[in-house]
């Protein structure tokens, strides 16, 4: 038996080498990580929906995928044409209110504001303003780039899911090829990762529902306008752990100021702080740990370390990656439903 044949026959060593190779490839294409992860998430969610529908009705994937994507495009169009202009108007109104207050006689009579004004004169506001404008331009550019990434991921996931029944047949050709052992090992690791990701995303959806319900109840009590559209926005942002709750604070504060002034803005900030603490210290550790069967302490540590190394993406994929390695190393097997 040759060295190559002994290597192929040694499944444990072979899979370790394949796993290291996969990690190396992912590191090499890390600049494309946004589009890879977004495509994976979109594809996973749509695939789960298609499989769920096919349990009850025997229909081709296209019958579910095409209407779903048309609905998503329609909702995005309505959001851009209706919701975004409202936010822009609220922002302009907020800016005008601040400017009018600054120019009004009441500003000169307000000793507290005068004290703040004198304190701010100690700083070089010109340089600070230039730096702020530069940061804003970079931020807007980043939003544009991320928008293109989302669109490309959306298109790629559409073409994958619309041929959901054909792709496994094509992938089976690789498993029977000359180097079938390589693709079998890749499929083995891919299946395990998809399994762990599915467990975690289920928990995150539940957390998003809890956040949305609590926030919507608070907004209803405050008599905020457009509750349904705000609820949809909050749910979508809550799918991003920790950061999503903070991001929702910006449009909510703008709308709150137009409704009830500074007092309502304070209410929103208090609500966001409470919900953010609830998610970070109760919901994330409790439900993530119950789904992944990890101790709450390890859940905290994984979220913290993953955020440090991977940024916001670490909060989303940190636990799936950790549980994936636990499964691969044989420490704790994640059971498939």
TrEMBL record:
Membrane-related topology note: Multi-pass membrane protein
Subcellular location: Membrane
Source species, domain of life: Bacteria
Any one biological process term the GO annotation gives: transmembrane transport
Keywords tagged on the record: Membrane, Transmembrane, Transmembrane helix
Sequence intervals crossing the membrane: 16-42, 62-84, 136-160, 203-222, 234-258, 264-282, 316-334
Pfam families named among the record's database cross-references: AI-2E_transport
GO CC annotation terms, alphabetical: membrane
Family the entry assigns: Belongs to the autoinducer-2 exporter (AI-2E) (TC 2.A.86) family.
Record's protein name: Transport protein
């Amino acid at each position: 038996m040759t060295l190559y044949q002994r290597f192929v026959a040694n499944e444990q060593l072979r899979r370790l080498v394949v796993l290291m190779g996969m990690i190396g490839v992912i590191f090499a294409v890390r600049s494309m990580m946004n589009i890879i992860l977004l495509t994976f998430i979109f594809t996973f969610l749509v695939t789960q929906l298609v499989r769920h529908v096919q349990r009850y009705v025997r229909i081709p994937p296209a019958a579910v995928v095409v209407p779903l994507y048309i609905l998503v495009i329609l909702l995005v169009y309505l959001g851009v044409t209706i919701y975004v202009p409202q936010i822009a108007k609220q922002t302009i109104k907020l800016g005008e209110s601040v400017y009018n207050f600054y120019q009004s006689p009441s500003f000169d009579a307000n000793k507290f504001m005068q004290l703040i004004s004198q304190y701010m004169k100690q700083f070089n506001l010109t340089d600070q303003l230039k730096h702020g404008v530069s940061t804003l331009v970079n931020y807007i550019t980043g939003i544009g780039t991320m928008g293109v990434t989302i669109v490309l991921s959306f298109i790629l996931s559409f073409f994958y899911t619309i041929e959901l029944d054909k792709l496994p047949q094509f992938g089976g050709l690789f498993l029977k090829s000359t180097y079938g052992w390589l693709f079998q090992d890749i499929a083995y690791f891919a299946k395990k990762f998809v399994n762990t990701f599915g467990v975690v995303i289920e928990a995150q959806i539940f957390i998003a529902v809890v956040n949305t319900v609590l926030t919507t109840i608070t907004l209803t009590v405050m008599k905020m306008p457009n509750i349904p559209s705000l609820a949809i926005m909050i749910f979508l942002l809550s799918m991003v752990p920790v950061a999503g709750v903070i991001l929702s604070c910006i449009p909510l504060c703008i709308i709150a100021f137009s409704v009830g002034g500074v007092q309502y803005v304070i209410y929103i900030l208090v609500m966001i702080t409470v919900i953010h603490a609830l998610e970070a210290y109760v919901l994330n550790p409790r439900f993530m740990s119950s789904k992944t069967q990890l101790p709450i302490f390890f859940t905290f540590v994984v979220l913290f370390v993953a955020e440090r190394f991977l940024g916001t993406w670490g909060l989303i994929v940190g636990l799936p990656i950790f549980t994936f390695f636990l499964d691969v190393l044989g420490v704790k097997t994640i059971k498939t439903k």
